Amino acid sequence: MTSQQRVTAAVMIIGDEILSGRTQDTNLSAIAKYIGTYGVDLAEARIVPDDEDEIVTALNHLRGKYDYVITTGGIGPTHDDITADCVAKAFGVALYEHPEIIAMMESRWKTELNAARRRMARVPEGGSLVKNPVQGPPGFQIGNVFVLAGVPSIMRGMLEDVGPRLKGGAVVIARTLRVDGSGEGNIAAPLEGVAKAHPNLSLGSYPFFSNEGYGSNLVIRGRDLAEVEATVTELSAALRDAGINGLTLLDTPG
Amino acid sequence: MTSQQRVTAAVMIIGDEILSGRTQDTNLSAIAKYIGTYGVDLAEARIVPDDEDEIVTALNHLRGKYDYVITTGGIGPTHDDITADCVAKAFGVALYEHPEIIAMMESRWKTELNAARRRMARVPEGGSLVKNPVQGPPGFQIGNVFVLAGVPSIMRGMLEDVGPRLKGGAVVIARTLRVDGSGEGNIAAPLEGVAKAHPNLSLGSYPFFSNEGYGSNLVIRGRDLAEVEATVTELSAALRDAGINGLTLLDTPG
Question: pLDDT category, A5, cuts 50, 70, 90?
Answer without folding.
Answer: confident
